[in-house]
Amino acid sequence: EFSGWAQHAPLGSEKRSLFPNQVESEPLQSKGAAAFKRRQPPHIIFILTDDQGFNDIGYHSTDIRTPTLDKLAADGVRLENYYVQPLCTPSRSQLMTGRYQIHTGLQHSIIRPRQPSCLPQGLVTLPQRLQQAGYSTHMVGKWHLGFYRRHCLPTRRGFHTYFGSLTGSVDYYTYGSCDGKSLCGYDLHDGESVAWGRGGKYSTHLYTQRVRKILATHQASQQPIFIFVSLQAVHAPLKPPKSYIYPYRRMANVLRRKYAAVVSIVDEAVHNITYALRRYGYYRNSVIIYSTDNGAQPFMGGSNWPLRGCKGTYWEGGIRGVAFVHSPLLRHKRRVSRALLHITDWYPTLVRLAGGDVSQEQGLDGYDIWPVLSEDRVSPRMEILHNIDPLHPRGLGSWLAGQGLWDTAVQAAIRVGDWKLLTGKPGHGDWVPPQVLSDFPSGWWTLERETGKRQQSLWLYNITADPCERTDLSTKRPDVVWKLLERLAQYNRTAVPVHYPPDDPRANPEVNGGAWVPWVDDEEQESNWNGVYYQLGRNRIRKKSRLFKMRSFFKKLNSKIMSNRI
């Protein structure tokens, strides 16, 4: 029941015990992995989708068709106990560094376009490590890890080439990106230059075309390649071409119909990329990783059913991700893995596959999981710190509720063994079935069912037995609660200060040629602001519009309608 806790030293032990991954991943170097190092390292293609929910892939869903993804997953290893972060920047930062958010200073929210913030310069990134191992490294798609200085750009953080958007959300055709309703600019970049004149072509098609060009011009037999394909899809705003919507024309819900079309375009893109891998001689020595960055937003047509919650929350629907690995190099394939895995694990795994060594790299939170993937070994991971966010609006908790170990008003979540603990405000926690209120006008079907507000600040679930988080066991298992609170406190002692600076007006695209570009010279010193600031809403008071009031009315109505049906 408490398997995995014995490996963690008690409070006061040496610092290294708080980062067990570096130590425990060593014995997992199998004979197969050692032999693999004697041949050319594999070509690595990492495909990251945006806001794709647990129920938004063919092998989980009954209404979305993804034949390419289904086949690749069926012939590889499906990851059914795999975790990401609930938002874009956090997942990407952990993928690039192999470190939890509390160890990078990016614990809170995302990096907004006007924030003078980016991935910390002192951290070596995954592509930088792969470059050191002799790889040609390329990134295509969404960055969302900051760009206020040139040294924050992808080409300065380990990628030989970059083509994509730097902000978190852009229009699929015009590549316009807005921070708020009025502050907008162009956001498509080729290397460190603005890629003007490329508007009009759907971004997934444009990105796929660039990936195929990279594969066609590189010599597969001469040098291993790493391509990070960070697709904008299926993030809003959804604007799929009509030809992709047509196959879903019988789907009652308009938003779900468009969302399904965008997923189908992703499926087609992956088909074209894998075709290029075969055509140009990469496939036989390649590893293809497919992952979402966080859960879906039901208000935008996505679905995490039957999991609880959505994007931006620490319920399973926000953090349990769709993922699989496909590779001819896998020893045991065509299977489903339920090993506990996390997005930080890709850093040490891929570095070691490339022939690198992470044993001396201090502070990593990820594990080398290649033996788990290839040979069906037991996962070395026994726990995941989902996050500790001291800036998130506080809940109703207290130190007393946390047994003197933890202030339960602080938003935090941790998984140890079978158990998951949440404190503070985890986020909106409804279960949203697909096609809810499908007979209502299209704007209303996504309204989520309220399950009743409980005045509490601490939840405990046995995730293995109850993956949908329907039975809170916090009052029945105070012994487990105590152990997880103690572990949270241990992690918190290793946290670095949160870096969440206020917006910089110099970022305005209107004063930067109409585009989102770096606006601070590399020679300029950092501002002398201290700590972080607390953002109340969006620093402005919004009046409730008539639409907002109507949504509230239908939300309450939906609560009554659905309470006895689900």
UniProtKB/TrEMBL annotation:
The keyword Hydrolase applies. Pfam families: Sulfatase. It comes from the Eukaryota. Its cofactor is Ca(2+). Residues 42-355 form the Sulfatase N-terminal domain. SUPFAM superfamilies: Alkaline phosphatase-like (SSF53649). The keyword Phosphoprotein does not apply. InterPro entries: Alkaline_phosphatase_core_sf (IPR017850), ARSB (IPR047115), Sulfatase_CS (IPR024607), Sulfatase_N (IPR000917). Signal peptide: none annotated. One of its GO terms (molecular function) is metal ion binding. CDD domains: 4-S (cd16029). Keywords: Calcium, Glycoprotein, Hydrolase, Metal-binding. Belongs to the sulfatase family. This is Sulfatase N-terminal domain-containing protein. The lineage of its organism: Eukaryota, Metazoa, Chordata, Craniata, Vertebrata.
